[in-house]
Amino acid sequence: MRRVDDDCLLGVDEEDSLRAFCALVARRSPRGGELAWALKRFELGCERPLVLESLTDWLLSGRALLGDTRRDDALAWERLAAICAPAEQREALTGRLREAAGLERRMIAGVVRSEPSVEALVLELGDLLRAVLRDVLCGHLDPELRRIADELIAEGAAPSLA
To answer: How far apart are CA 35 and CA 52, in angstroms?
Structure first.
């Protein structure tokens, strides 16, 4: 968790679970491929001193995990929303993720200021990517994220027979 002082405080009762988690991640961390690259970009984003500086790294991570090089980024954010949100919340989450992606060009142009609402949007993207990467590395989520997301999207688009 990012704190103002760039430190993270753990209680004594949290040390063992953190050690176990770190050992699990070390054993399961990919050595190459898209997942390894996405994880590295995510980590680079976490190391940035300012939240807005994390945006490009986290967008690259999301694109590597869920994007399609033959299409625009919109599909990556729809897929991330499909994995992270229940069907009734996906459209709203997809909109927020697209808004976060849209910040990048404006940030490059120097027209985005670090405001609480902007930082919250960027942090939401980071939190979602963290959750997906954690679940893949821990074995709770199949690394075939594009396939899983596309299946979830197709299920949500199917007409209800009730």
So the answer is: 23
